[in-house]
Structure formats: structure tokens, C-alpha cells
């Protein structure tokens, strides 16, 4: 009932990877995909067991022990799997394909933390000692979350990483990578995991894996037998989690007194092992002392390699002692138990040395200081090792020798070796054999060959390696070379610094170097340089397949993850609070506005988790959850699309960051599927709620199912919260710093504008209140300031002021901008405009008594009292109600403060406010003189000379001035008479038809079911174009406040539907814009918030986008175009109509200028140059070729022969000399005839 959707989805993922019939034999790297399948199956099984236990209420101690055991196995293997990818697979891929693997390495760390949450729940359950439903429920949620997270991570790898691996690496190279991974995992873990993995495969897949293993494993008979024996092993009943103690149960009969000669004691060989460790540590210490006193660092990398090898060997030896030897010794000791064994070779003691060996300081520590610290640390470490090994030999081994048979001792040694990876075992055997004498080597071989493990394939392989090493077939030089290759990644930066310091010779002791006596002869710089080992970023060399390639970095990842450093470009995790605390942060890093969006997303995700937990108990939360979820889904899709289509391509276009965002785009796709799954669960719950509450309670059947669905919904919300938050955090860690570092403020602002330019007005009306509700007032101010700067060339401010009730953001803008030259948007009628310029002229004539217009007051503030603001759409109101339970009240308080400041803050108006009030008073009285022709020309001239006006404002004002005389000459009308006339029948109060035969309401321009009452003349017209065709003035559609339904003929406030009950909410048109008061019942239309006009098309982000620089809506096919600032706010050079508000199609010329398409067709019949800049309108090579032919046949008069003329080319804008001609002059630079004589 609570089964996770992830376990069943994409059942064919593994099969899908095998594209075009390609199998494992051809692409051995796909074995890792089968590892993924096994992990999926195990997590699904664990969740099934946990669900059944929760349903039955039987989650006792045995179940908890089983879960802990299996999760410990999963955690350990997943750690090695992740380390293998980071240190082997990803490093190799990163050499060939950059910017792919860093994201997956970040995800490995977050997934590792999820395992800790599972164990925390298990610890709580263990301490309680009784069944606890809530805690076990939390454990189930943790299991579901880790299952979902790992599932998505593996799907991403299968979609992006594995195809690249198959493409970039040959079959043999892939096999080498897989084998290197297998040789770096402890044997005891690998021999459990392989049969466990095979158990979840189909018969055909098992055969394919067995065949591929023969290609992956080197062609060594014993080695092949070992791997095949692991694959053919039966999987333990506990899922591959058999403990070492359980494996040794067969040797229980060996316990007891069993004395034999000392040479037969298997544990005597460990003394030789201890002696070899002591000897090598002392030798390294002596050599390090020589380097310390001589300051000759050329041999330092090889010493660090030796120390790394010894440290890794001691780490695994420590694990073997802790898991095998010490527990047995504790059982044998009984009465004289001592806790001192816990201190013997504690691997935590090795951490200090490992920190120094993992040299990644990049010149933060001088080499001499580094050697000093390393020498001191090694002296202390060698002393501690010698002391602890002596204690083990004195207290632990004698007791085991006395109580264990030879076979038992042999099994213990064999099991201790299996704690190491296979590759390290071979290195250790080679190293150890070099310290053995002839008799010691023969004794070791004899013991192993005669024991019960002699027939064991792995034991036989180990004896074979020991025989080869001792016989000299494997030289110590070859062993040293292999060690350098295996440990290269941990010495790479050290070697680099030594080389740089040697070349630059700037070490502090370089001057003393030749005067210091030492045992080593100083080397010349060239010799020193030649002695440096050559290290690559990947420990796997192409076209080479090692027999047992061991990667030390994997075990370093597992044993000491805290020592590893994140790459430099991922080193800082910018907390949201530190980034958004400063108001000016978006001024320098505009792309950080994404963090604000992330903050809002996280708040809503937390709210969904909180509310989903209460749904089962309180159905009243269902509607709020439903609304919040679908709003969040809608906003997340907007955010994902803007990143995928705008932000990520801009980042990858930089050249150095290809592929860096691909994994995040996959995240967007997979997380979209997560939203769909949650939506499906919501639909199921909604269907159940169609029953009344009484029926549900009475039947007793619907209520349990409702609770089950609510539980499932809550689990999915927790998983979705974790997945999305990790995605957001990784994006802020990895991607946002790149925008800050490699993009200028202008480039970031352009990206921000492009992201906004694909958001529809309806989307912004939903988005802005939602986003603002999650931000502090300072953050609101910063966000809107950024959006205003990104849209400074557009009408976004005008749209925002008309749409947002109370003009909240208009007031917020004044806090940030403080501009004194803010220009009003002239939307008043002709009388107001004429008054404006007549009063201004009088002010200049009277010595400038009236203030200049540049006082900072905007038209939104002027018209805010005379025009009712447009209310927030109903969906936004629902969003506000939705946020009541989890959003702070500071947003509402701040909004009220801003509104109060806007309404009462008249002190800023000063004399300008008086001017506006006087103008409105005169306007109402209509007490205006009729302008003469001279006064009209003078007013138009003042408009043209006003540099503070943009072209659009000039066009509207001049058009209003032309109609001002007739408007002013109209008879005066008392305001009371006007109001009474509004209540009576208005002229034109009858229906009009688009097609009288079909009785379709409308006019020749539009199909609609209403007429508009023009605010200017109080007459009814079907549209503004019908009005303008008849009247001598233009109609401002935005001032329209009333309409008439053509069905009931009743005048009413303008709206989308008829308010008369008899019409039953008859729709006035399919499309209605509350800002433009525009209706249309035929075409696809959208309102652009940046043009603040209604335009033809499906909408922004669908088939159009708005270019913030050009201030124009353009087809998405024109995403790359010649961009000119406010190029659409100009007049057509042919017909002189204002292009921005024109309804005719526009043609963009190659030079960047615009004209109507119809004008272009007529113009190009006679001309081929731009009427503005005179550049050629297209490719004129054919025409210019004709002119060349014409001039070649034409003869120049003798008196002009040889003369030249200086010309200027309109196309290339270069000067040059051209042969004399009375009409045609060819440019000597570009060959164009579009020239003129200078």
C-alpha cells in the first residue's frame, strides 16, 4: 500500500542503456549499470520489509538488527562504489570530457549523509527498547528518501555519464576501468556483493555478466577462477551481509589447546610482517632526515609514495585486527579481559600522518616546513607503531596460539588478508616477499599449501603470487613503479611544487644548499627535473590493462573523507543569508536573484511537508495543500524552463563550461516527473473526497484508504523536499559562482532580462506575490530594483503600476532609485496635454514661477487617484490565503506602509502637485481658449525640443495637440449634467454585428459580445478603431470603465462576463485584458507586460519572447538578432506611423532599422538602400555585377579619362578613390556601388 513509485518506474532502465544491440562484451563499463540494478532492488526490498513491519506492528529487535546489518553493508558498498566513480571512472572521463563529473561527486556526499539519518533512527529505536510507531514511521520515510535520491542519481548517470564512457573509451579501456574498480574494493566485500548482484538478474543477464567478466579480468587462469567462484557463490540469506565471525563458525572445532612446534604456528609469520613494517618505517625516516638536512627534495615524492603504501597497509591491518583478531581474543581472554586492545593500531591514530601525506596545499606550506612537519610526525608515528606492535605480539598472539589450531590460525590470517583490496594484496605480497629469507618463504608456502584452504581459489592465487614474487619474476623495481602509478593522485601537487621550486630556485635554503653536508650528492636542475615521476590526473593509463590495478584514493575516500577537499571552484557554499543580507548584492551579481527564487521554493517545499503530515488528521488542509502544490509546480516549471533555455546555454557558451549544466537539466526533467507523481496521488485523494464526510465515516471503507494515500503523499513530499533542496544547494555551490566570476554585470543583467522576457503577464501576476511573500522587505526592494534595471527600456513599470493594487512596487522603486528626472507617461486627454505645455510656456514667460517637470513624480502617482487600479487576479488572492499559515505578516505590514506613504506622502509633489491639481480643475471646467495655428505649431515645436521625452511620448502628445482645438471648442458641460447623462441612454445603445446574416456580435475589426463606453465622449462603440474612424479624436482604451452587453443591452462595469443575471455570466469574448480593456473572440492574443499592450500570438515563452534592449516582442526564431536600444520606439521611415503601437507587420532590415512590411515591399520597387542610414537592404552582388558590366562597355569622354573622385562607401563606411563617372562609383574596398562623392 505504501510502495514507493520509484521502485517500479523505469523498469527497463538497464535494457535501455544497451542501445542498438550493444551488450556488455562490447561495453564492459555497463557492468556498473547492473550494480545500479542490484542497489535499486535491495532498497526496494528493504522498504517493502519496513512497510510490512509498520502495517503489522511487528518491528521488534530482530527486524532492527536485520535492517542495521543490511544497511551497514549497503552503506559500505555504496561508499566504495562512489569512491570508484570519483577516483577511477570520473577522473578518466574528466581527462577527455570536462565539466561532467563534479556534480555527481557532490551528490555522492549528500547521499552518504542520508545513510546517517537511517542509522540515527535505528539508534533511537534501539534505545527505546519498545515499539514506537512514530519513530519507525520516520525510519520508513528515511528509507524512502534515500531510495528516491539514489534512484534519481543513478538514472542521471545512466543518461549522461555512461553514454560518454562508451563513446570515449574502447572496450579494453572500459574493461580496465572496471577491473581497477574491482581491485580497489576489499575482497570480503566484493565476494559478498558479486553473488548478491547476480541474484537479482535474469538468466540471460547472468550469462552476459559471466561472459563480460572473462573480458574484464586479466587473462590469468587463477585470477579468472577466483572471480568466477565469487559469481557462482550462493547469496547469503541476509543479502550478502554474513559477518566474519559467522564465516569462521566452521573452525570452532579448532578452539582449545593445540600445541605444536613454533615453526608450524601460522601466527609466527605475522612477526615477520611486523618486522618488515618497522624496518621500512625506519628506512623512510632516515631518508627523510637526509632530505631535511640537505634541502634536496627530488626524492621526496618517492618517499611519500612509500609512506602512503605503508599507511594504507596499516589501515587495512587495523581493520582486520578490529573485526577479526580482537573479538576472538576477547572471547578467549574471558577472565582477564583488558580494554587495552582497543588502542592497538587504531586507524584514527593514522589520520594525522595521512593529512600530511595527502599533500594538497598548493604552495600554502613551504617545502622545508612540510618536510619538518612530516619528519616530526613520522618519528612519533614510528614510535607509536613499534609500541603497539610489541603489545600485540606480547598479549594477543600468545593467547591465540595457545587456544587455536593451526587450521584456525591459517583461516584467521587468510580472512585478515581478505580485508584488503585484491590490488593491494598483490602489492603487499610483493613487498613482504622482499623481506623474507629462503627458509621463511618456504615455510610460508608450505603452511598454506598443506592447510584446508589450499583448494580455495583465492588462497591458491595468493600462494602463486608469493611464489612469483620470491622467485624474482616480479622485480622490486617493477613493484616501485607500480606503486608510483597507484599513488600518483596523492602526490601530484607535491611533485608539481617541487618542480616549480626547482625551476624558480626560490626556496629559502637554496643558498645554503651547496654548503650543507649530506649523504647525497646534490643533483643539477636538469637531472632533478628528469627524476620527477610523470603523473597523470587519472591513475588509469589508456591502452594499458594492469593485472591488479589498485587505486589508493578509493580507500582514502572511505577511511578519511574529512581530509579530502572539494575542488577550488566548489570550495564555497554560499549561504542564502550571507548573499542576500546586503541590499546592493544584486547590483554586482544580478544572477544571484536565482537565490531569492530558491528561497521561495524551499519555503513552499517545507510547507508541503508540514501540511501533508496533517492531512490524515484534518481534511481541512487538503484545499490549501492542493493550491500550494500546484502553484509550486507551476513556478518550478517556469524556473526550470528559464534556466534550461536561457541561463545554462549562456554559461556553456562561455567556452570553458560545456556540459556543466547537463546534469541539472536532467534534474529538472526527473523532478518534473516527481511533481506529476504527487499530482496523481492528489487526484486519487480528491476522488475519495467526493464522498461526504458522513458517508466516509459510516462506511468505514474510504477512511483507511484515505489515510494510506495521505501517508504515501507525505512520504513523497519528504523525498521531493530532499531531492529539490539538494539540487538547489548544488546549483548554488557549483554554478552560481561561475556567473559571478566569469560574467560581467551587464552580461548577467542581459541573462536576467532574457529570463524575464519569456514570462507571460499572467505568470508574473502569480509569481510576483508568491515570491514577495517569501522575502524580507530589503530582499523585495533588491529584487524589484534588479527587475526594473533589467527592463529599463520597456513599459514594465507602467504595467506593474496598472496591475498591482495600491502601487506597492512603484513606491518601492522610489526608495531605491531617487531619480530626479523620472518622466511621466503621458496618457491624459488632449486638454490636459495642452494645459501642460501652455502653463509651461507661461511659466517660462513669467520668470519660471512654476517648477520644472523633472521633480521625480511619475504618471503612476499622478493617475493613481483618478483611475481605479486593477485588482489582483483571483488566483493570486487564493495564493495569499494559502500563505496565511506559513508566511510572516511583515509582507502585509510593509505593503500597508508603502500604500500609506504613497497616498499621504504629498510633500514630494510641491509646486508640481499644485500644477497637476490646477490642470485637473481647468480640465473639468473646460475653460480653455481655442489654439491658433501659430500656438499649435509652437506647442509642437516645444514637444520636439523637449529632450526628456521619449519618442513614444512625443508621438502621443503631438497627436493629442492636433485634436486639442476641436476638443477645447466643444460646449461646456456641467459635471452634474454629465453624470445624469451617464445614467440615461447612451448614444449607440444597440447591438452591432460582425456578420448580420449569422447574427454574430462584433464589428469589422473584432468579434465580441459587448460595446465600450468611450470615456472621452461618452458614446458606445464596438471597438476603439470604430471610434477613431468616426470621431475627430482618439480613444484611450485603458480609460474605459463601462461596457454594454449586446445581449441584454445593459451598461455595466467593464469585465470578462456580463453581470446581468439574465445573461448567466455570458462571456464577452474568449480573450479579455483587464488592463487594455480589450476583447477578442477569434484570435490568439496575449498581453505583454513589457510592451504593456495586447499582441497577436500564443504568448511569451511559447512563440514569442520580449527583447529588453529592443523593447519588442519577437518570434523565438529571432533569438539571435541585431539588437538596437528601443529600436521599435521609432516611426516607420516611409509612412511615419509609430511602429511600437502599430498593428501592421514589421520588417527588420540588415542594418537594424525597421519599417512596415508593406512599406518595405513598395519602397524596394524603386530603392535598395535604407532610407535612414543609406546601407544596402540586402545582398546586391548581382545588381553590382550588372553595373560592372555596364561600366565596362561605357566609354568615358577623353577630357575625363584618368580622373578620379573621392567617395565614401555607405556599406563599409570607408573612403576611397573611384574612376570618374557622373552616376556610378564603385568602392575600392568592398566593391559596393552604394557610395557618394565627398
UniProtKB/TrEMBL annotation:
PROSITE patterns: ZF_CHY, ZF_CTCHY, ZF_RING_2. The keyword Zinc applies. It comes from Daucus carota subsp. sativus. Residues 962-991 are annotated as: Disordered. One of its GO terms (biological process) is intracellular iron ion homeostasis. InterPro entries: Hemerythrin-like (IPR012312), RCHY1_zinc-ribbon (IPR039512), Znf_CHY (IPR008913), Znf_CHY_sf (IPR037274), Znf_CTCHY (IPR017921), Znf_CTCHY_sf (IPR037275), Znf_RING (IPR001841), Znf_RING/FYVE/PHD (IPR013083). It comes from the Eukaryota. Gene3D superfamilies: 2.20.28.10, nmb1532 protein domain like, Zinc/RING finger domain, C3HC4 (zinc finger). Residues 1068-1131 form the CTCHY-type domain. Signal peptide: none annotated. Residues 996-1065 form the CHY-type domain. Residues 962-977 have a biased composition (Polar residues). This is CHY-type domain-containing protein. The keyword Zinc applies. One of its GO terms (molecular function) is ubiquitin protein ligase activity. GO terms for cellular component: nucleus. Keywords: Ligase, Metal-binding, Zinc, Zinc-finger. Residues 1132-1174 form the RING-type domain.
